[in-house]
Amino acid sequence: MSFFGVPRLPPGIIARPRLLTALDSAAPLTVLHAPAGYGKTVALAQWATTTDEDGVWLRLREESAAPARFVSLVAHALDDFGLIDERNPLAYADASLMVADPWELLERGLRRIGGRLTIVIDQSEYLDEKTIRGILRLLADLPQLSVKTSTRTSNAFTESGLALSIAVTRIGPTDLELTIAETAAVLGVTERSERVRQVLEFGATPAVARVVALDADPRTENSSAAIEARIESLLRLHDSAVDSRFGAFMQRIALTDAIDTDFAVELTGEPDAAALLDRAEREGLGIWNAASPHASGIRSFELSPVFRRIIVRYTRRELQPATLRELELRIAGWHLAARRPFPAMRIAVAWKDWDLATDIVRESWNEIIGGRSGLGLLFADVPLMTLRNLPLISIVLAISANANGNQRLRALEYFALAVYGARRQRSRSRPADRALLLTIESAANRVSGRAAPALTAAVAGLDLMRTMGPAERDLLGRNEPTLYNQLGTTLLYAGRSADALECFRASTAVSDAKGLLAGLQGLALQAGTLAVRGDMPEATTVLADAGTRVWPDSWVDGYPGSLAVVARAYLTLEQGNPDAAAQHLATLERHRSTIEHWAVLADLDALIALLKGTPETAQVHLDTTLRDQKARHAVHSDMIAELRYTSALVKLAGGNVTAAEDLLAKAPDSPRRRVGRARVALARGDLERAMQLLTGWGDEDADDAVSSRVRGEQLALLAGAISLAQASAPRSERADHVHVALRRLAAFLQDRGLTLPVMLTPIAAVDAMLNAAMSSTAAGSYDDDFIDLLRRARDTGVIGGRGVRPRLTERELAVAATLAHHSSLDDIAAAMSVSRNTVKSQLRALYRKLEVGSRDEALSVLAAWELSPSAHDLR
């Protein structure tokens, strides 16, 4: 290895051994802190070309400020120079940074590279304080890492107190100033020359020396204004056509901080742009950056900041606004073609070119989302009335704000703007754009809690995708898999899981064909959808496929891979291991507050708690989740409907049968509601009602309405009801159809890889099934796995193993409330305005229902079940 990415040193550079010695410091951090023009970049480049250390050079831009953008820059530099293998967490840094913590990602990536590494960060004044603090923490945690950085401004790197926590070598203006001998060498004169004195009086900076060296007249004034005027004179050299041409050339290339030869030709119209850039380098106006040996091999030229600032000021003053706009928009297009969307977006916003801004988002969706904080700042001053006509920009701003737990209301505002703009534009758009706008409308409505319009847009979007021709589909470009993922997610939460799976499979297929990453999310969505439906063999197959692929770091346990985590949790639950399922879900903990899959996670949390025998924990978690998501305005009717079934199950497991009945009574009729009500009936011992609810299902209840999971629960409850009925019948009247029901249940569970339907069957019914399966007439009819499942379900006793909440009348509740405040029969009778005998009769009925024999025992049971008039009113 060696030092990669070092800019080429301009000609005529003098040796400065004292600076090289200072830069050879073994301290983990070396800081060059001085204003522009002091030669910081050149000094670092001289050191990097002579050192034996291994490392990479980073030249920062304004868009590098935030942690995610900085880490992306580091990752690309390391990758460009062949330092990252396929398994390195930094291999897909931009995708990973959409969900990963930047510093965790970078630290693990650097550890995998191994060995000592130096990173040169040129122009760290562009970094924000959060990024600098992250770099400092990285230096503390990685002894093999060192950083050498230059900065024009004060920042955390330059704080004096930093030396208390980390060794720092500081190189300041005095160290960077030219000595008399160095000044004479730059000017090509003797040390006693008047020109040397002029430079020393002005500040002895390399930039001043270079400007003075360009002036052949030693009598010229050396004030700041004169020096700037001298730089401008480079642009106004009228002595020959060549110099005039060079000045015009410099005006144009100064509009971008870096430029390659091909684009310099295109931007300036000069076929010998390479020679003109070489001339600029010879005159000390800038430097060539080294080309990457592993990337495109294209090198770029960068103007010195001090010169560029003056040249740009002159250019903006001299050029007509229309010409300036045309040049800068061409520069934006060049940045976009080179996959640098943020510099392009900055130009588009500055010139209010909203068509270009929309194209930038369309073509660089993932990069824009990955750097979402920078995008939000860029559009901070753009009026909302403008944004409502820019749905693609509004949606990425919404996603950005939604990822920040403190900006949910702003996100909802942006989502509303996206919906408005999408609806307004799609009627007059071509099919590809219409599909994109429908997807935006669907996603924005879904995340905003508007389920019905979200579904309408998703259905229309999928229909359009199905009928779209290849030419129109090609116009979707890199966004096609993302459209499928978003449409499918809406369809999934609207109960259209078959259509959702079609979308997720299409996402993966398109991504595989085009070499894109979004299909990995499609795989995760497939796995989660299949597991939620109860199709565990298919979910296992998809997870196996996902496991063979290389995922961007933090996708596996972040939002893109979250439903694969759900699938793995379901698999471990079906295998009877709630602790392992909880460990899977714990990997998503940091996303819980903002992830839109919160309802699925809440359902899994409840199941895990029930299988661990803690329905109280399930209820608390469920209530807390609903409260927090309602506060975020992230709850819509479909989610409430789905969680109603979960809440009813939790109430039933806790023994509160009445509350479970009340919750299910509010749900519209569906197979899942019938299953829930049958489970309640079975817990009450009402076999006739249970069997009425569980039989007579026809073909109209197929596919989405009756998933494998719902079908499994139906078969388990039906077999349990039949087993209970047969167990109570006289032996002479018992029929063999109980074994028909049990064998059908066993076969279905084995085929679908399910156990939860039996685990969630009331314990009395499970016990009856086990007795029937173990009877002498059934000997050898059932395999050991099925018998073991029945035993485990009986021993766990999720439903009915904890007793049933007593169902008290209004009068009994009144007696219970009075009992808490009075101990004697006379006092209770007086408080209720009834006779002593009436109280005795009512207390006997109350004690019988509570299964207690004393007042103290009664009060304990009442407190445990939260039985009071106020509690009853809330049920």
TrEMBL record:
<dbReference type="InterPro" id="IPR011990">
    <property type="entry name" value="TPR-like_helical_dom_sf"/>
</dbReference>
<dbReference type="InterPro" id="IPR016032">
    <property type="entry name" value="Sig_transdc_resp-reg_C-effctor"/>
</dbReference>
<dbReference type="InterPro" id="IPR000792">
    <property type="entry name" value="Tscrpt_reg_LuxR_C"/>
</dbReference>
<dbReference type="InterPro" id="IPR036388">
    <property type="entry name" value="WH-like_DNA-bd_sf"/>
</dbReference>
<protein>
    <recommendedName>
        <fullName>HTH luxR-type domain-containing protein</fullName>
    </recommendedName>
</protein>
<feature type="domain" description="HTH luxR-type">
    <location>
        <begin position="801"/>
        <end position="866"/>
    </location>
</feature>
<dbReference type="Pfam" id="PF00196">
    <property type="entry name" value="GerE"/>
</dbReference>
